[in-house]
């Protein structure tokens, strides 16, 4: 809810900025309010994006895995659906009316969300029992750093096939202060973090063009060229594949859907095809020397198609993998790390352009730029392939813990023996039979 409030505050600051731009000439005051609008918008978006998945899942108590997967996929599809609608309207409207339409639409949407949440919040699950995951991780790591050997040695300490690691020494059975679930949760988090490199690899290839954000209206181009230059093809492809998956594959061909990590790996292959096809296009089709007009050719629909497929495979599958494998207490934190990995990819993407002579402000037309990004994508794919092969899935089983049963049995036996030896001779101690179950 805090994210929506921050976004609404950003909308108010933007409105003040529009008023100042229309009636006053104070650039300092204008930049001040636009700066506040930008900061609150980014803060609100990240807060909303990182918590909305966890919030939606909390509402679906007792839901099946298919229902949770559908929620995650519809959540991922919301972004390309909104961009498809925006780009269709954006390229059809001439003049500055697009700013007014976008501003009014954003205000109405945020108002509807705020009002609906106020009316129906009593029917939603708003009680969070999640503890601080960072505190648990720090405590487990500090205990592992300070202890090299088990605190509670017994004949069964080394019964297991492998010797316990430093982080495993924090478990109760080795004399540590943490339960087995808490330690395994921390280990799962550290196993999952390297796999987020797939999201970094995808967003490194995502081209965000200057004129999409600024809305440059001084360029006279056709409707089709506008759609090409604004990457409409990749958003439309993503929407189509999302609908095919949700309406056809998931209900009918569920057993043919590959594993999540395999889908992510295939998505990285499509991400490589995106950059490789752009490299070939800019070698075969020399761009116009002008730096103030967008470069458009129907061939750009090919890399846009590849990226749209990569978006569906990586974003949805990686988010599903993050939610499925993350411990319940750490799910929100891991979704935040997933979102942060997207930001890392965009930072690499933006700063990589400065090393090449990208004269066109709308789209970099240097083929060497895309060749380097192709190599970077191959590196990301190789790292992800090696990490995914070594990843050990977290499976929570309800089988009988033989080690725990034997440990408890001998602990009670030793306690009763000490009680016999310490009790007076005329005291009768009634033993409680605790059969040893194998």
Automatic annotation (TrEMBL):
What does UniProt give as GO cellular component? membrane
- Does the keyword section mention DNA repair? no
Membrane topology, as annotated, equals: Multi-pass membrane protein
Gene3D superfamilies per record: MFS general substrate transporter like domains
Location in or out of the cell: Membrane
> What's one GO MF term for it?
transmembrane transporter activity
What keywords would UniProt list here?
A: Membrane, Peptide transport, Protein transport, Transmembrane, Transmembrane helix, Transport
Describe the family membership recorded for this protein in Swiss-Prot or TrEMBL: Belongs to the major facilitator superfamily. Proton-dependent oligopeptide transporter (POT/PTR) (TC 2.A.17) family.
Task: Give GO terms for biological process.
Answer: peptide transport
Q: Name one Pfam family in it.
A: PTR2
* Segments crossing the lipid bilayer: 5-24, 30-48, 95-115, 232-249, 261-285, 305-323, 335-356, 368-387
| Record bears the keyword Protein transport | yes
Q: Which domain of life does this protein belong to?
A: Eukaryota
Kindly provide the name given to this protein in its UniProt entry. Answer: Major facilitator superfamily associated domain-containing protein
């Amino acid at each position: 809810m805090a994210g929506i409030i921050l976004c609404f505050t950003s909308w108010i600051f933007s409105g003040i900025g529009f008023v100042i731009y229309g009636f006053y000439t104070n650039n300092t005051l204008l930049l001040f309010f636009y700066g506040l609008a930008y900061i609150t918008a980014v803060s609100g978006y990240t807060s909303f994006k990182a918590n909305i998945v966890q919030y939606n899942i909390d509402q679906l108590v007792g839901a099946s895995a298919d229902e949770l997967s559908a929620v995650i996929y519809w959540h991922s599809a919301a972004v390309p659906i909104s961009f498809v609608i925006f780009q269709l309207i954006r390229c059809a409207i001439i003049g500055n009316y697009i700013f007014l339409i976008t501003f009014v639409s954003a205000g109405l949407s945020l108002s509807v969300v705020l009002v609906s949440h106020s009316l129906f919040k009593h029917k939603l699950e708003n009680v969070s029992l999640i503890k601080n995951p960072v505190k648990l991780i720090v405590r487990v790591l500090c205990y592992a750093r300070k202890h090299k050997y088990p605190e509670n040695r017994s004949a069964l300490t080394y019964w297991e096939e492998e010797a316990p690691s430093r982080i495993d020494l924090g478990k109760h059975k080795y004399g540590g202060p943490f339960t087995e679930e808490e330690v395994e949760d921390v280990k799962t988090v550290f196993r999952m973090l390297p796999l987020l490199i797939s999201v970094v690899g995808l967003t490194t290839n995502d081209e965000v063009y200057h004129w999409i954000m600024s809305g440059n209206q001084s360029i006279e181009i056709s409707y089709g060229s506008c759609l090409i230059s604004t990457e409409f093809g990749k958003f439309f492809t993503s929407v189509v594949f999302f609908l095919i998956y949700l309406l056809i594959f998931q209900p009918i061909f569920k057993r043919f859907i590959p594993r999540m990590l395999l889908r992510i790996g295939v998505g990285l292959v499509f991400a490589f095809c995106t950059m490789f096809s752009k490299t070939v296009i800019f070698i075969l089709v020399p761009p116009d020397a002008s730096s103030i007009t967008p470069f458009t050719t129907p061939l750009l629909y090919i890399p846009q198609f590849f990226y749209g497929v990569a978006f569906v495979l990586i974003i949805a599958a990686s988010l599903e993998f993050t939610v499925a494998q993350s411990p319940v207490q750490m799910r929100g934190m891991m979704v935040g790390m997933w979102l942060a990995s997207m930001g890392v990819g965009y930072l690499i993407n933006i700063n990589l352009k400065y090393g090449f002579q990208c004269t066109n402000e709308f789209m970099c037309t240097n083929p060497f730029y895309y060749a380097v990004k192709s190599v970077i994508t191959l590196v990301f794919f190789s790292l992800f392939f090696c990490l995914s092969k070594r990843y050990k899935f977290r499976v929570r089983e309800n089988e009988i813990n033989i080690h725990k049963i034997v440990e408890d049995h001998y602990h009670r036996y030793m306690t009763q023996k000490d009680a016999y030896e310490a009790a007076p001779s005329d005291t009768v101690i009634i033993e409680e039979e605790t059969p040893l179950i194998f």
